[in-house]
Specification:
about 375 residues, Spore Coat Polysaccharide Biosynthesis Protein SpsA, Chain A, globular
Amino acid sequence: MFLIVGFILLIVALIPYIIYLFGISFGKKPTDAGFPKEYPNISMIMSAYNEERVIGDRVVNLMQCHYPRDSYEILFIDDCSSDNTLSRAKTCLEESGLEFRIIANTQRLGTNRSYNHAIKLAQYPIIITTDADVFFEPDALNYLIGRLVSDPNIAAVAGELRPFLNEDNTTKLECAYRSYYGRMCDWESAVDSTYNFNGALVAFRTNLIRRIDDKRGSDDANTAFEAIRKGYRAFYERRAVVFEDIPHSFGIQYRQKIRRAKRLIEATLANLDLLGMNRPFTRFFYPLRLFMYLFTPILFFISLFLITMGLYYASPVILLGLISLTLIIGGVWRQNLFNAFIVNQFYLVVGLLNMGKDTRIWESTSKKGN
């Protein structure tokens, strides 16, 4: 009985992922937007907290972008850093020759509220939000803006966040997860919209999105939801690549991933009224995501427990063999989707358990900041 119930629950838990697997394999693909024919002026808002060690490299990275320098300004927000982030950022930006303004918060606001404050000060109609501890590929902004201006029905676009490759186990797991994640968002975007944005690189039109919901949830997901709420599309552009350092230790990455999972779930639950809209996103993708974030993690671990109990009573030898095989595969082939799936289901469960805690105020989890 344990085995039967366990396998049934496992199949039910995996339904959204099975659907997405078919979708990314055989479903609609996005058309190629390319670079913009004319480069619009943009305001880039960059948030930072205790990023003194990385901010110099970040400014150099911005200088290496292929987007025309005379077409954008930088609004750098220091959220009351306790190190020399503010002075270091000012020095580096002054030396860069880039157009910039410094915003020094007088109290910790967190990402969402900092962005909303800066949006009011931006002088250009297209906003880019990004972090101080990530790094663009040279053409990332070109692809991002190219997608945004390719269709007047697109109000917001996110780039693809990838980890810098190294030999850390955390990075290998994250690579496997991000690859599947990006393809899921790619399919959603081709059909209608996705709200699974990467906050490391987001662009949106201020005539359509004037502020980001700063009460609940992540700034990236809330930006996408606002576009969808207004009847527009939120798009994921995989060629607009931005990289981040993955923390060396699981302990540091744990804090980062739990915060992201919890805030994504918050944003998902905060926009349930959109289920009444008649469009592919709200009728199909949004319900799948709800099931994926709220029910799959719980059902998955319950099913594993029941299957384990069933095998223990039926054949302990088979159970021991399966556990040994799983550990061997996980140890030899660390960058695999199975390992990544289990780890991220765990993060979602802990994220659900942390609902109600205020995580709007962040701490630096970048490798260079720890």
